[in-house]
Amino acid sequence: MGIGAEEKKPLLVQLNGQYYDIADFAPKHPGGTKVLNRLAGEEIGEFIRGEKRIMGVRHEHSEAAYNMLERYNVNTIQKGDPLIESKSGMLFKVGSLGSEYWHWIHQPYDGTLRLFDSDILESMTRTSWWVVPAVWIPIVVVFSVISVLSFSSSTDVYNSVLLWSAWFVIGVLTWTLTEYSLHRWVFHWKPSPKSPNQILLHFLAHGLHHKTPMDGDRLVFPPVPAALIVGFFYVIYSNTFQWPVFCAFGAGKLFGYVMYDMVHYYLHHGSPRPRSNLHFRKVYHHNHHFKNFDVGFGISTSLWDYVFHTLGMGPL
Fold first, then answer.
1. Measured between alpha carbons, how far is 217 from 238 in angstroms, rounded to an integer?
2. Annotated binding site for heme
3. What is the domain extent for residue 21?
4. In Å, what is the CA distance from 179 to each residue of 108, 172, 307?
5. Residue 114 lies in a domain
6. What is the value of pTM for the model shown?
7. Cα–Cα distances in Å, from 117 out to 17, 38, 92, 220?
8. Which residue positions form the known binding site?
9. Which residues are known binding-site members for Zn(2+)?
10. Residues 203 and 296 grouped into a single domain
11. How far is 99 from 197, CA to CA, in rounded Å?
12. pLDDT (tens digit, 9 = 90+) per residue, 279-288?
């Protein structure tokens, strides 16, 4: 698959808003590696101050422990990183990371990276969240109306709406499986460290998002490349289904995509009410980024994580 067994995964913990990658320290931790693995992705302030137990143990750490922890501050580690601090486009330099790439993208950078030298090309990589529904929801509505009208040529209005609803829901469910499959088997495909082109391709597909998870202008998919993908599936589905079925199914799948992009954006930038479903989804996705990126691939739903045994972790 490309990444060798010697590749270590980051072990991220958070203290006062700062992330620390303690993977190198974990084997030397006096309390054992298991304790730190249990806290991966979590805010550790209460534990390190001895205010809360972890695995039955409560321990107030010394000033020396805080000083030692500071060595692993991700911001400190990233100082001097030429790809992060570069004022010119870094996209075509990322392939030079080689075997360091997989670890590098999973040490999050709270900022944005300049991909291209050209201001025009750079602007095309950025999309505000509201653009996605503004472009695609009108198309969902149009194809839904066309579907109902087409169905009504052979049955009454009630059954036409019923048929549209059924195929629309099937389209939404199909999207959720597509979302899961893309995230798990395409976005989390591991490029060969010996192939700069594979690294570049992965970085464009998903590596950039894991490196800069809070970059709000690069969370949703730009409509221009999305239109090419929609057009591809338009050709396939319109030649597979009858016209009214295609319109309902396609509208449902497109609606599912829009909801996915909106939910994904909200999980990174929204503040859901504690113990609500969206709060669970936010923590679930946060843990995918900062606790274990090999599980928790569902964004809009955990359904397929259950089916394929890749269930992540929600709130503690």
1. 33
2. 29, 61
3. 1-79
4. 23, 10, 14
5. no
6. 0.85
7. 31, 42, 11, 22
8. 29, 61, 183, 188, 206, 209-210, 264, 268, 285, 288-289
9. 183, 188, 206, 209-210, 264, 268, 285, 288-289
10. yes
11. 13
12. 999 999 999 9
Task: Name the strand (E) or helix (H) holding 27.
Answer: none
How many Å is the Cα radius of gyration of the chain? 23
The per-residue pLDDT for range 246-262, each reduced to its tens digit, is 999 999 999 999 999 99
Three-state DSSP string of 70-118: HCCEHHHHHCCCHHHHCCCCCHHHHHHHHHHHHHHHCCCCCCCCCCCCC
By residue count, the chain amounts to 316
312, two tokens: 């992540």
The token pair at 281 is 């989804």
Question: How much of the chain exceeds pLDDT 90, in percent?
Answer: 69
CA dihedral of 254, 257, 263, 267, whole degrees rounded to 10: -170
Cα separation of 126 and 280, whole Å? 28
One domain for residues 143 and 278: yes
